[in-house]
Amino acid sequence: MPLDWGLGHATRDIPLIYEMLNAGAQVFIAAEGKHAALLKQEFPEITILPLPGYRIQYAQKGKFFGMKIIQQIPKIYKAVKYEQRWLKKIVKEYQINAVISDNRFGLYQKDIPTVFITHQLLIKTPFGGWIERTLQKINYNFIRKYSACWIPDFAGDNNLSGELAHPAKLPPNTTYIGCLSRFEPQPDVQREYDLLVLISGPEPQRTNLEKLVLDQVKDLSLKALIVSGKPGTHYHEEVAPGVIHVNHLDAKALNEAMLASDMVLSRSGYTTLMDLVKLNKKAILVPTPGQSEQVYLGEYLMEKGYFYSVAQEKFNLKTALEEVSRFPFKSFQHEQDMSLYKDVVKRFVQKLQQP
């Protein structure tokens, strides 16, 4: 049951669903719209139960992003109340004996095991201080209603989320489950591109970054693939010698394109970060303006040496490529077990199957 805040919550649940199926569980998926379509494409045999998302609206200007989200807290509470009523009915109708919720607050029930997945125990805002502390308290109040909290990251200093998922105090029943990515490394992949550009995020910032890249890449001599993150319409054009621009790639093609690229340029969305470390790729991160979480992750991971990060308002592609050629990228992958989540899921399903 993924949150409808970008496709990342749906795509990062794909490896979890595969592991549940491998462990012999019958799985139902709750989603709507493009999230449901994506998961239906990946799992055509699984029943999709329609569940409305929170349908968050985004500010047109980055500086108003945080305030726009805070204004919609009453709307989120209303959606949570609906989730509670919906779940009670569905558990009875489909004889559900466990629920895994990816960052949806209302999908808990006392009578069955319920799991809350999040990498944001501390919710970043542009305002910091008491607002962040208040949001964390609200967050923890919901998390405590669940039987367990799974965090898609690693414990210890070598982690991807910093203080977002490693605050001073953790909620009870917390388990770090490692990296969640639908992508898989492959041996001996031939390099095709100097640069893979993954454009994503809410409008108008998605278009703003796309325009910056398209305007600047034409002056550079490199082989590049630009993916606009706009599924639904087909577009494939060579916009400059050696530079291909497409609207969308399916999961298999995107996996192959990432492996075939020397460098990736992308937002610092958390699911994208997990994909990058799973494939052990170097990357230039351009956080979505106004998204405090992405700004924090970009700065944190650059300080750790895992990725290079630059603000969109300061972005220059030529300069960024020159800088990354001197950046001492530190490999995250060799320090961590990329299949940690598999054991967590296996134990969870086995416990459900016990008489």
Largest sheet: 7 strands, mixed
Beta content comes to 5-15%
Task: Say how many strands there are.
Answer: 13
The radius of gyration over CA amounts to 20 Å
Helix content: 25-40%
**What is the structural class?**
alpha/beta
Question: What's the overall average pLDDT, rounded?
Answer: 89
Strand order of the largest sheet: 9-10-8-7-11-12-13
Q: What is the overall silhouette?
A: globular
Order of helices and strands: HHEHEHHEEHEEEHEEEHEHEHEHH
The residue ranges in which pLDDT falls below 50 over 5 or more consecutive positions are none
Structure description:
- By secondary structure, the protein is α/β, with parallel strands linked by helices.
- It is built from twelve helices and 13 strands.
- The strands form three sheets. A seven-stranded mixed beta sheet has the order 9-10-8-7-11-12-13, sandwiched between helices. The protein has a four-stranded parallel beta sheet with strand order 3-4-5-6, with no helix packed on it.
- Helix 2 packs across helix 12.
- It is globular.
- The two termini are 26 Å apart.
Structure summarized in a few sentences:
By secondary structure, the protein is an alpha/beta fold. Helix content is 37%, strand content 15%.
Distinctive features:
355 residues, alpha/beta, seven-stranded mixed sheet, 13 strands, 37% helix
Sequence-ordered SSE layout with sheet pairings:
Blueprint: H1 8-11, H2 14-22, E1 28-31, H3 33-42, E2 47-50, H4 65-71, H5 73-94, E3 99-102, E4 114-117, H6 129-143, E5 148-151, E6 174-176, E7 193-198, H7 205-217, E8 224-227, E9 236-240, E10 243-246, H8 251-259, E11 261-266, H9 270-278, E12 283-285, H10 292-304, E13 308-309, H11 317-324, H12 340-353
Parallel strand pairs: 1-2, 3-4, 4-5, 5-6, 7-8, 7-11, 8-10, 11-12, 12-13
Antiparallel strand pairs: 9-10
Helix pairs in contact: 2-12
